Amino acid sequence: MRITLVEGDITEQRVDAIVNAANSSLLGGGGVDGAIHRRGGPAVLAECRALRASRYGRGLPTGQAVATTAGDLPARWVIHTVGPVWSAAEDRSALLRDCYANSLRVADDLGATVVAFPLISAGIYGWPVEDAVGQALSVLRAATPATVTEARLVLFGADTFRTAERVAGGEP
């Protein structure tokens, strides 16, 4: 699987699946989650509400992943995953890595070939960018998915992109 670093807006990626750094409610929020819900439109929210009414009444657990339609986004699916909130007192990095691994598994189950990931937990959840990139790349580099041929790490802002390039060693 090829790993590509891209500076930009994840809602503009023309891919099979876009990964959403969701909150556990699945009902939208700020940051990436809010942008995906706004751009995806009512179809994404309707499927998220159906998931809450059936399988995830208490919300999607941290590290898990589930797919919905992409609605008006330039993708077929949105894969929602809930990242952990950063804690200096508790190592939650396994949960962060689970977000990437479980999202890839869901993408494979869907038959997706190109998947766009945000930098999960690095926004409002406070995960340090450098470590968040390292966690993401450790999972993506070790993965051997059945159908996914490209994992795109979409980084918002020039500073975040430069950090990701540095952590990746210039070659992802």
Automatic annotation (TrEMBL):
| Pfam families, per database record | Macro
Report the coiled-coil segments. Answer: none
| Organism expressing this protein natively | Micromonospora sagamiensis
Protein name per UniProt: O-acetyl-ADP-ribose deacetylase (Regulator of RNase III)
